[in-house]
Amino acid sequence: TTRIERHHYDVVVIGAGGAGLRAAIEARLAGKKTAIISKSLFGKAHTVMAEGGAAAAMGNVNSRDNWQVHFRDTMRGGKFLNNFRMAELHAKEAPQRIWELETYGALFDRTKDGKISQRNFGGHEYPRLAHVGDRTGLELIRTLQQKIVSMQQEDKRTHGSYDARIRVFDETTITELLLDGDRVAGAFGYYRESGEFILFEAPAVVLATGGVGRSYKVTSNSWEYTGDGHALALRAGATLINMEFLQFHPTGMVWPPSVKGILVTESVRGDGGILKNSEGKRFMFDYVPDVFRKQYAETEEEADRWYTDPDNNRRPPELLPRDEVARAINSEVKAGRGTPAGGVFLDIASRLPAEEIRRRLPSMHHQFKGLADVDITKEPMEVGPTCHYVMGGIEVDPDSSAAYGSVRGLFAAGEVSGGMHGSNRLGGNSLSDLLVFGKRAGGHASTYVDQLAARPRVAVSTVETAVETALAPLQRDTGENPYTLQQDLQAVMGDLVGIIRRENELEDALGRLAELRERVAKVSAAGGRRYNPGWHLALDLRNMLVVSECTAKAALERRESRGGHTREDFPTMDPQWRRINLVCSLEGDTVRLDRKPLPKIRTELLNLFDRAELAKYLTDEELAEFDALAA
Ligand code: FAD
């Protein structure tokens, strides 16, 4: 028989990024015995890489900012496909979550009068991103970890052990959720180092596993982002929404090839950086879409004045939402106006004094010097789009973060959840999302546990199946190498389900994904269970595959262009499609896609917009309803 280490918890949080840590803190505060599980080392989650900041309408730099303006920007950024309730909760609660971080010990950059400083970012009307230089995620993670350590010290005093109420299992990968009927009963996985199995029995699980970027070759995401949480949720009977919407960040490094995809923070543009093509033209003025024309400068002079006088000038088009900028760069390169390495130029050197660049963007300065031998205080950077963030994710109840679908006891927060950002996320809105919905998920998971009459039980047979599935790649000797399979998957997704999409290519992609699914079912990993990355990847592949299928299917179905989904054959936004979410579920092994109407936006929230603006997004029918209510 196989040895399995067993643990019992009230709440198991899978993922130790901002969302997972904030959820775990809340569960522990609610008195729940809580486990935090992380595939990577503790503190190495994606959140740590976040550079620009966390968006919260604190109004510290411009007192006109408030939650309503933030809500409006978020809905605009997502092209009105957002779950409005999530966008509302996020805008309202983000400031409290940031101030709370200060009570945990966070040290944000300051304004002259000592308030938390806030910086400009694409799509945000006012300076709104609380930040620590360009290393905000590091401070966020550090602070949340510190809070957890302080709780553990308290537990040591009261319960005699640091791990009594909250324990971290890092370098531990969860491969299955275990169910008792329609209820979550636990999670199963392995220690990466020893390959030994571990089983958590728990009535509530919070998924906070982050994104899916590793299905693409050019990505800002690190090795862990294989869509595990998305796939775990699907297999447990939950649903995913908006999976066609991926964010291709406009500015990833394009040179040298070994670092292609690594992020160049949007703060470079927020702090004055401009984009130029190989002809030296500042091209973004040519790419302002109608829906945004009123808010963006028409001339370089006006754009430049905005940095010092934002009340009387409109913002530069470099600060359009990311989907717009990424498409523009893509078009410039396609039209033959790209740089030698196939990107465009991002210039901060001619815009700010060298000293100021080093002060505001220390990591970028260091990154380009070290990786590309480029001094960004003297020369422009070469940049191009990189797969960065998935807007789609687990469909959740906006207030409680409980997963929809047939499963109970499952909660999701952070990048792994869907709805909040609609078809495109604004920069800075993720870090705040993690805190707002992490807290909510942890709190509601705890309430769920309190209300249970009886605890679910883990059946022996489900554990046996989990063990078998996990060991299978090691037991086959004739199957394919996982690395080849991952490369093939990345090629399909990058070439056929990338930034610009077409019907025949998406159909082709689905055919290839079906073939890949059969190949992945026979994947084999050489070696044993002791630290074996090939085996780990073999197990990740089935997750990447099912999630990629959801993305490709939804991308084929959605016949319009909106946010992170661009169809060359349906290049405009279609108001009818704004009313529809594409919902992905699993039926046996088959990915199923359904259409579901979006919840109706509450009237008082619609009233925050001009009718003229609403007319760009809503159907005639919806507008007539709006007019009738206004009359
Ligand atoms: P993550 O921080 O991604 O953490 C996921 C956790 O889940 C990890 O601990 C991982 O090990 C664990 N995990 C995954 N699968 C498993 C499994 N099977 N078993 C166990 N554990 C698992 N957003 C902003 O708002 N502002 C920014 O300035 C910003 N800058 C960014 C810069 C970069 C380079 C990148 C890549 C992203 C940036 N983002 C930014 C986006 C933001 O950082 C992420 O969306 C966010 O951190 C996701 O947080 P999360 O808590 O949902 O998950």
TrEMBL record:
The keyword Coiled coil applies. Pfam families: FAD_binding_2, Succ_DH_flav_C. Residues 487-598 form the Fumarate reductase/succinate dehydrogenase flavoprotein-like C-terminal domain. The active site is at 322 (proton acceptor). Residues 10-431 form the FAD-dependent oxidoreductase 2 FAD-binding domain. Its cofactor is FAD. Keywords: Coiled coil, FAD, Flavoprotein, Oxidoreductase. The gene is sdhA. It comes from the Bacteria. InterPro entries: FAD-dep_OxRdtase_2_FAD-bd, FAD/NAD-bd_sf, Fum_R/Succ_DH_flav-like_C_sf, Fum_Rdtase/Succ_DH_flav-like_C, SdhA/FrdA/AprA, Succ_DH/fumarate_Rdtase_cat_sf. Substrate binds at residues 249, 265, 388, 425. This is Succinate dehydrogenase flavoprotein subunit. Residues 499-526 form a coiled coil.
